Amino acid sequence: MTTGTNCLSRDLFAKIDEQIQRLSGIISRLPAGNLHWRPSMPQMPVPAPRSLGEVLGHLLQCLAGFVAVLHAVRPGELSHFVELKQRPVNHFCQEAEALARISEYRDYLHAGFQLLTDEQLARVIPTVFVKEGETVLTLLLGNFEHLVNHKHELFMYTKFLGVPLTSPDLYQFRTELPARLRSDVSEGGSS
């Protein structure tokens, strides 16, 4: 396999960016006037489902998790990331605010991933959950999983409201192999 500078961190950002694009596409198709809607569920001893507006606010928290990890890795160069911590997340959010903030988070993530090296993905940093720390890759993948799960929650809510979303609204389908991998395939995938 061809090894280039920071291929893994670049590819990881590309996957996160795909999720952000899909998420923004779903939000832009939300039917107006439904932010207080929530699915009706049978009585259960767990919290009630979030409203659509609350899901939008929680998706901001999902993106804030990536920013927190990147800031922990490069606090000096990314000191301006701290200003995002002052912004509300996990709150009832309007569509326009969600789209604007998601775009802003994407810009911050792009800047942070530009500085992230593949070697730093293996670095262990302490977290509020695991004092001994976890690798940066594990933390980023955990945030990725969080984002994907709640993007799917939004996808289902939107479908329940009658918007005809399909798999391409949820996933980025590949029609060809990325250019940097095409040579690996033609060369027999050397390591």
Short overview:
The protein is mostly helical.
Explain this structure to me?
- The protein is mainly alpha-helical and 191 residues long.
- The chain has one domain: dinb family like domain (Four Helix Bundle (Hemerythrin (Met), subunit A), Up-down Bundle), CATH 1.20.120.
- 53% of the residues lie in helices and 2% in strands.
- The longest helix has 25 residues, at 136-160.
Helices and strands, with pairings:
Elements: H1 7-28, H2 52-73, H3 95-115, E1 124-125, E2 134-135, H4 136-160, H5 167-170, H6 179-186
Antiparallel strand pairs: 1-2
Largest β sheet strand count, sense and barrel closure = 2 strands, antiparallel
* Unreliable stretches covering 5 or more consecutive residues: none
Instruction: Give the fraction of residues assigned to helices.
Output: 40-55%
**Could you say how many structural domains there are in total?**
1
* CATH level 3 topology: Four Helix Bundle (Hemerythrin (Met), subunit A)
What is the overall silhouette?
globular
What is the level-2 CATH architecture name?
A: Up-down Bundle
Average pLDDT reading: 90
Number of strands: 2
N- to C-terminal distance: 4 Å
Order of helices and strands: HHHEEHHH
Overview features:
191 residues, 2 strands, mainly alpha, 53% helix, globular, two-stranded antiparallel sheet, 6 helices
